[in-house]
Design a protein that fits this description.
231 residues; mainly beta; Jelly Rolls; 8-stranded antiparallel sheet; 7-stranded antiparallel sheet; globular
Length: 231
C-alpha cells in the first residue's frame, strides 16, 4: 500500500537532518623560487627562452615572437582565495598584466579578471560570459563563442586609475576573493579597489602573468595562494 502524502510529509519532518559538510580549503601555494625549485607546479615549462629562475626570483624578459608578450601560467584551485605576489621592473617602460582565470558559468574556463599594472596606473578588466551573441557588453564581436561552453566573452574595461609606478621598485599585489567580491590592493595602502561582480563567485583555475619588460625584463617573487575558508 502506497503511503499517503501526509505520511510522506511526516516522515520527512521527523527524519534526522543531514550532516553539514563545510567546503574544503583549497591547497595553499607559497612559491619563493629558492632552491629546490619545483618547476612542475607551473603549466609553463621553466626554464624556457624567456623565463628562468635567477637569484631566487622568476625572471622573464624579451619577446615571445608571437602576438603576445611572454606569459607564465600557474594552476590554482578554489573559489574564495587570497592571491598575492611581488614584482619588479628592471628597466623603464613596459607593463605587467595579471589575469585570474576561472569557470565561465557555462561549463568551460576563461579569463575572469585582469589587473593591468601599467607604469602610470592600474586598470581593471572584468571578463564575464553570456550565451547571448548580441549582448551589449560583447565588444569583440569577431571572437567566436567558446567551443566547449558556447558562451561569449563580455568585456568590462574600467577607467585607468592614475598611480605613479615608474620607479623600478619591488611592488606587492594582493587580491582577496570572497563570494562575488574582490578586494585588490597595491603596496598595501598605495592603491586599492573593491569590486562586486556575479562572475567572481566561481571557481578559480589558473593565474597568468603577461610580461612586457623588454630585454631587461620583470622579476616575480613570493607568490602566495591561500584559501579564505577556515576549518
Amino acid at each position: 500500500m502506497k503511503p499517503s502524502p501526509l505520511q510522506l510529509l511526516t516522515a520527512l519532518l521527523l527524519a534526522p537532518p543531514a550532516p553539514l559538510h563545510a567546503a574544503e580549503p583549497a591547497p595553499s601555494i607559497h612559491e619563493t623560487f629558492d632552491a629546490p625549485f619545483d618547476a612542475t607546479r607551473f603549466l609553463t615549462p621553466i626554464p624556457n627562452k624567456n623565463t628562468e629562475v635567477r637569484d631566487g626570483v622568476l625572471w622573464t624578459r624579451g619577446s615571445s615572437g608571437g602576438k603576445y608578450p611572454p606569459m607564465v601560467y600557474l594552476p590554482v584551485q578554489g573559489r574564495d582565495l587570497t592571491i598575492s605576489f611581488r614584482y619588479r621592473h628592471l628597466a623603464a617602460g613596459g607593463w605587467l598584466w595579471f589575469f585570474v582565470d576561472g569557470d565561465d558559468g557555462f561549463g568551460s574556463e576563461d579569463h575572469m579578471l585582469r589587473v593591468k599594472l601599467l607604469r602610470d596606473g592600474v586598470q581593471l578588466q572584468v571578463d564575464a560570459h553570456s550565451k547571448d551573441a548580441n549582448h551589449p557588453m560583447r565588444q569583440n564581436t569577431g571572437r567566436p563563442a567558446d567551443p566547449k561552453s558556447g558562451a561569449y566573452r563580455l568585456n568590462e574595461i574600467l577607467p585607468l586609475e592614475k598611480v605613479d609606478l615608474t620607479a623600478n621598485l619591488w611592488r606587492e599585489v594582493k587580491l582577496v576573493f570572497r563570494g562575488d567580491e574582490v578586494i585588490i590592493k597595491l603596496d598595501g595602502t598605495t592603491w586599492s579597489k573593491t569590486l562586486k561582480r556575479a562572475n567572481f563567485n566561481a571557481a578559480k583555475r589558473k593565474l597568468l602573468w603577461m610580461q612586457n619588460g623588454g630585454n631587461q625584463g620583470i622579476e616575480l617573487d613570493e607568490i602566495r595562494v591561500t584559501s579564505n575558508i577556515t576549518q
